[in-house]
Design a protein that fits this description.
heterodimer; A: 264 residues; alpha/beta; 9 helices; 38% helix; globular; B: 383 residues; FAD/NAD(P)-binding domain; D-Amino Acid Oxidase, Chain A, domain 2; 2 domains; eight-stranded mixed β-sheet; six-stranded mixed β-sheet; 19 strands; 27% helix; 26% strand
């Protein structure tokens, strides 16, 4: 993404790859392949995450075929895994199926909350980092766990804003700020985004990118929402770089009395 | 006086292929239907909900008029077939109940209510106690229901069997062979080649092979419909009848439907998986279906689990069926019906039969034709 005014390049480097879009899309819940393709294009994303357990990679005309046609990088994920062991095995299958060392590591604790299972997650991350995977870890909004994931070698940490599919936005912005402050790797806000302002807020808090799926795929008009998300992520990033003004308790006129032209 | 009409080969004996064969035979065409395993594809596994309203979703606005038109034709279609075959199709027209289990599901159903109102679809909203007055077997946790008045249900296996029973009297030959290839010559379909080596010459070929369509050789690439298999796992249970009408429920965000038959069978479906032709039922598939069905109707836990099956819906990139003559003259397609094959059978049958009789597609159905230009154009992308 280039800054419109200064023309400066503001690329994200994610696991050694330069990206000009700071939006990552998931495909879960998409109503049709045509809509998915148009939404990917409208979002201008360069990375799309696909659940290995939910697709047969070699099936012709499948989701994977359509995603590939848009020219984006595929980030396989381990959605549907409940133990570290399953997640590691699924990552191995993903490496063979997609020919990539990238993996979005997801280890889920239970069906009701779909929250990450932190102990299994950290263990699996350590194993996969030891095997030279570029691990992008889906984690709770926990600054301590995020730091531990970075220390075992994760290429990015992906804290949730709210549980998957809830669209509740960022429930603990303070924690996200703490994670961003401490992080030495990119922070990708993952899960919980409901609408464009949530994505903009994530970027304003200093996240390096936003990953979302349901907010687009389950919208009444997914293609329009994909476009909204693209603009929101860009706006939030620019606002973060520009620096917000301090909040005040009382009003302050934008045109102060000093130096005001005397038009009498 | 009727003049003998030319021969048509129908590729695939699901209910759409059989329905087209039967209709064409009534009109005096000579018809051969080829299928190695008649009515053993999507027809065998489908639950048979005829639910243009209960299954209407945001973004499917282009499907809705076709779905409503076909639903309008179903009662007459069923009656005529029942009379001709003497079979009971287990046809019901008591509506379908959309049900929400938790507060989150309630907002999903309320969002659909907006869609119903916007499209003037006839429904009745029922509160917690009204829902259970209508269907006492439902769990007390069901929050809200919407009764969709125009929706119906039928047993697709019975429909397939009834259609097959009609064919001998009509002089339709059913060849238990797989069609290897469509033969074309100078941009015209000339017939098919069967897997036993036989060639069948015909004036027209109608491909109703569902998800298996791309496996047929000889179809030029630019005429081949873009269908893919969308795997579905579906269960059949048996025991005391629990429901008077189908229930389509949302259970903690997951859709599940329960379709009762008069003989005590209860169909519970279905998963939707992008797994190619993966024929395996899975632990998760069966577990999630049962878990959600039991959350809606607790007594489902006591029924006999009689059958677990896997089927393949013919999915298309825009979720619309492909009905009509292709760019190869005389080569017709009726496929890509995805989740709506049973519902769309009457309208599909008459569009193809009318088209073959008159040589042109009825104008209002042109948007579903394989050659309709916008079908293949990319969607508008906002900048």
């Amino acid at each position: 993404m280039a800054d419109a005014t200064t023309g400066k390049n503001d690329e994200l480097v994610l696991a050694g790859r330069n990206l000009s879009s700071r939006l990552v899309l998931g495909t879960g819940g998409v109503p049709s392949l045509d809509i998915m393709e148009a939404a990917i294009r409208a979002s201008r994303t360069e990375v799309v995450t696909v659940a290995l357990r939910r697709v047969e990679v070699s099936a012709p005309g499948s989701i994977v075929d359509v995603v590939r046609r848009t020219g984006v990088t595929i980030l396989p994920n381990t959605a549907g895994c409940y133990t570290g062991r399953e997640a590691v095995r699924t990552a191995h299958l993903a490496r063979d199926a997609f020919g990539t060392d990238w993996v979005k590591l997801e280890v889920i604790a239970d069906d009701r909350t779909l929250l990450p299972e932190p102990v299994e997650l950290l263990g699996a991350a350590e194993v996969l980092c030891g095997e030279d995977f570029a691990v992008l870890a889906y984690t709770n909004d926990d600054p301590v766990l995020s730091k531990r994931l970075e220390e075992v070698g994760c290429a990015a940490v992906m804290p949730l804003g709210a549980p998957i599919g809830t669209g509740l936005g960022i429930r603990n912005p303070h924690n996200i700020e703490l994670i961003v402050e401490a992080a030495g790797v990119p922070v990708v806000l993952d899960a919980g985004i409901g609408t464009a302002s949530d994505a903009a807020l994530a970027m304003e808090l200093g996240c390096d990118a936003v990953l979302l799926a349901s907010a687009v795929t389950r919208a009444h008009d997914p293609v329009l929402m994909a476009s909204a998300m693209r603009h929101a992520v860009e706006a939030g990033r620019l606002a973060c770089l520009a620096g917000r003004i301090p909040k005040r308790r009382h009003a302050q006129a934008s045109s102060p009395f000093e130096g005001k032209p005397d038009l009498r | 006086m009727t003049v003998a009409k030319p021969r048509v080969v129908v590729v695939g004996a699901g209910i759409i292929g059989l329905g087209i064969a039967r209709d064409l035979a009534h009109r005096g065409f000579g018809v051969v239907v080829a299928d190695p395993d008649p009515s053993r594809g999507a027809t065998r596994v489908a639950a048979g909900m005829l639910a243009p309203v209960a299954e209407a979703r945001w973004g499917d606005e282009r499907l809705l008029p076709l779905a409503l038109e076909s639903a309008r034709r179903w009662p007459g279609f069923a009656e005529e077939l029942a009379n001709e075959s003497g079979a009971d199709l287990d046809f019901h027209s008591d509506g379908i109940l959309l049900a929400a289990v938790d507060a989150d599901d309630r907002s999903v159903v309320e969002d659909l209510q907006v869609l119903h109102e916007r499209n003037h679809l006839r429904t009745t909203v029922l509160d917690r106690s009204e829902v259970r007055d209508l269907e006492p077997a439902l769990s007390p946790s069901v929050h809200l229901g919407i009764l969709t008045h125009g929706d119906m249900a039928v047993d697709p296996r019975r429909v397939g069997a009834a259609m097959r029973a009609c064919l001998p009297r009509l002089g339709v030959e059913v060849a238990a062979s797989r069609v290897e290839a469509v033969e074309t010559d100078a941009g015209r379909a000339r017939g098919v080649v069967l897997d036993d080596g036989r060639s069948l010459a015909s004036a027209a070929v109608v491909v109703t092979a569902g998800a298996w369509t791309p496996g047929i050789a000889g179809i030029p690439e630019d005429a081949l419909p873009p269908v893919r298999p969308v795997k579905g796992q579906i269960l059949r249970l048996r025991g005391e009848p629990l429901l008077d009408r189908p229930v389509h429920a949302f259970v903690h965000g997951n859709p599940v439907y329960l379709v009762p038959r008069s003989d005590g069978e209860l169909v519970v479906g279905a998963t939707q998986e992008e797994m190619g032709f993966d024929t395996r039922p899975t632990g998760r598939g069966v577990y999630e279906l049962l878990r959600d069905a039991i959350a809606v109707v607790p007594e489902v836990a006591e029924l006999e689990l009689a059958e677990v099956s896997v089927g393949f819906r013919p999915g298309t990139p825009d979720n619309l069926p492909i009905i009509g003559e292709s760019r190869v003259s005389g080569l017709w397609f009726a496929t890509g019906h995805h989740r709506n094959g049973i519902l769309l059978t009457p309208v599909t049958v008459s569009v193809v039969a009318d088209g073959l009789t008159t040589g042109t597609m009825p104008r209002e159905f042109l948007p579903y034709s394989p050659t309709w230009p916008v079908r293949r154009a990319p969607m508008m992308v906002p900048t």
